[in-house]
Structure formats: structure tokens, C-alpha cells
Amino acid sequence: MKLIVNADDFGYSEGVNHGIMEAFYHGVVTSATLMVNMPGAGHAFALKQANPSLGVGIHLVLTCGKPLCEDVSSLMNEEGYFQKGKNFLDEAEPEEIRKELTAQFTRFVEQGGLPTHIDSHHHVHAHEKVSPIVIEIAKKYSLPIRMTRPNSEELKKAAILTTDFLAHTFYGEMATRDHLIELLETISEFETAELMCHPGYVDEAVITGSSYNVQRLQELEILKDPSLKQELAKRKIELTHYGSIKG
Predict the structure, then answer these.
(1) Which of 34, 64, 183, 188 has the most C-beta neighbours closer than 10 Å?
(2) What is the pTM of this model?
(3) Per the annotation, where are the binding residues?
(4) From the annotation, which residues make up the binding site for Mg(2+)?
(5) Domain holding 104: CATH number?
(6) What total of structural domains would you count in the chain?
(7) pLDDT value of residue 85
């Protein structure tokens, strides 16, 4: 079977970027998704260009940092940042969502070419107001989308390429080597799967801006464990990225 190990939050900060690249160079990470609106985005695009074998998709953002567009008031708080949480999307203007996501996708293409696939921060791409817009973009450019429980049937109906399974529980207290091995057992039953992870080094931007900070270091150390590749080989799991499973 084929497994994509995707590091979210590429572009969040240079510390996160360096951690992701460390997990790519010396661990099992094969893919990353880039946040074009965050301070480390330019650094991430440079790393992408220098490392073409890393699959890089777009991590669409509606809940972190500032929007690229200035006139999307239903998405913003009084300070000009995205509103926190996902509940605000229930009342957000669909055209403002479309405008911001289109701007983010365009920024990615301008700086890095087409992404390998599409996912999102806090899985907002599965929200009922967001999903149709993301599917429209994916169809236009023949791109895969990360599956989640809320959107798996919708992706099937739209004939959007995705994996057979998403392992999303390697996170927080569950980000342990033992749990990762448990996930490999589950993953081996499918033809294709994605393991979502969040490795990174802790810099000032992470400490001050993200509640998920030192945990990124813990993930990084596990993902670099040399014995993981033996565990993959034992289960005949081949590491890849979304660019190699396109139809």
C-alpha cells in the first residue's frame, strides 16, 4: 500500500519549516501543506523549490493569521485577523469565502506552481460553505483533496481523487511512537492512506501564536526514529506523496 505522511502548517514560521524539513530529510515525512498567508510562507516556498521531491500542497486558511484580501469583513475580527474557531463560518458570506480561498490558491500558484493537493487548517475545507468552493478549485486543476469524515462521501460523488483513509489521531497526547505503530497496522489494510502530522521547531512565532508548540518537537523526534522505516517495510508500506497518486 502507499502512505503519504503529510506535515501540516508549512509556512507558519521558519521554526516550523525547519522542523518539517528535518522530518523530511531524516524521517518519514514525504509531503507538506503550505499556509500562504503566514509569515513563514516565503521561506517555505524557497524550501519547496530547493527540494522538488517533497510533495507540497496548499493548506487553505480561514482561522489563523490575516486574510490576503482586505474586504472580507465576515471572516475577520476587529484587528483584521481571521476569527477564531470555525463556528463563525456558519454566518460568513460565501462570496467572501470564495474570494479569500481563490486569492490563497492564486498566491500559491504564482509562487510555487500547482500544489500536489488541497487540505486546510482545522479542516475547514469540509465545512458545508467551504467544501463546494474547494471542490470547484480541485476539479478545475485536477487536484486531490484530503478526505475527512464530513467530506468523504461528497468527494466520492464529485469524483475527486483522495486517499482511502486519513489517520488524523497522531496529535497531542496521542502523538506517541506506540500509537503511530497502531496506526500503521490500520493503514496497512488500505491501498492508499494519509498520516497527518505537525512536526516543527519551537520559535517565538510558535510560542506566542500557537497552542500547539512543544508538541511539535515531540512529533519531530518520533517521525525521525530510524526504526519507523523498518516498521513500514515489515508491513509493505511504500512512502509517497499526492503527486504520485494522481489519476
Answers:
(1) 34
(2) 0.96
(3) 59, 121
(4) 59, 121
(5) 3.20.20.370
(6) 1
(7) 85
